Amino acid sequence: MGKIASMEYFRVPPRWLLVKITDADGHSGWGEASLEGHTNAVEGCLDAWFKRYQGLEADDIETIWQMSWRTSFYRGGPVFMSALSGIDIALWDLKARKLGVPIYQLLGGKVRRKIRVYAWIGGDRPADVEEQARARKTQGFKTVKMNGTGDTCWLDSPSIVDDVVERVKSVKSTGMDVAIDFHGRVHKPMAKQLTKALEPFHPFFIEEPLLSENIGAIEQLSHLTAVPLALGERLHSRWDVRPFLEAGCLDILQPDICHIGGISEMKRVAAMCEVYDVALAPHCPLGPIALAANIQVDAATSNFAIQEMSLGMHYNSTGQDITSYIHNPQIWKVEDGHIELPTGPGLGIEVDEAQVRELSSCSEAWVVPEFRGPCDEIREW
Question: Exposed/middle/buried for 344, CB within 10 Å: 0-12, 13-18, 19+?
């Protein structure tokens, strides 16, 4: 076994934080610790943990995971868990590369030959969604996701509901399946109306119908609709996930591998979901390392449903995309709504370290957008 010799992180555009761990024998692995809008906080956590973990055995992934969780006194949360995710993913990549196998072979082996995927349309303030859906269809996708609304207030005009319905109808007219992301922007009075109005159009799922702190209201909403309800990107451990499973208010869990504690915790959360007959559809509007890590778990998970991928997403406006920072972008080719399962060692991607180092040299931290209403009140983004 090789001891951890060095740990580095790289802030790169458009909004990603990549991690590299190298052991004393020269083996290395890559992870992603992106936390959109809060990279400085995660970088501070990584600085502290890197000093502690130098000299530990890189193969002891679970020991390092438990150290990060149990010896910090304060547990969980987006910052700690995103930092841990970057470390965990990098350690899995290092170990599997050293053994010359994909990570999914270390997770029990594959249960599928290809991965079902979907892509984004519409942006933060959705428009031109029919045209964008047709473009995605041309790319090989069969399913898309769109924000339902821009910003809304607690009780907004009924015309908002009509507008959302018309946009969804226009996408459905292309023959695509469409998931609608409420993005936590919608409050209970509007969520009830929107969900009911969208039922006749058979959404693939509705995402974050309400913010996850409103678990009681989500449970109420789940009793009012047959539309599958999904959330999970703002849950940061199996302990955060547990009350939603126990309440029976979710059909699809969407943990983010960069916020949930990496591959180790994603696999545990997936097993919990299976017990409650809940599907796994990992959240991933992030970089190629995050996507590759998700796919390794998806490949070995029986209750996996569909994978988000950020190809051409509206946040990737700096010129970098999931095809950047890697030498083998062809692995993201979509055919008939699926991508092929990667067969290379580790994460199955080959990181372009020269590009990572070059573009990290002057990369600014991404700032979360701010929405304000007509009275200058702050609204949910």
Answer: middle
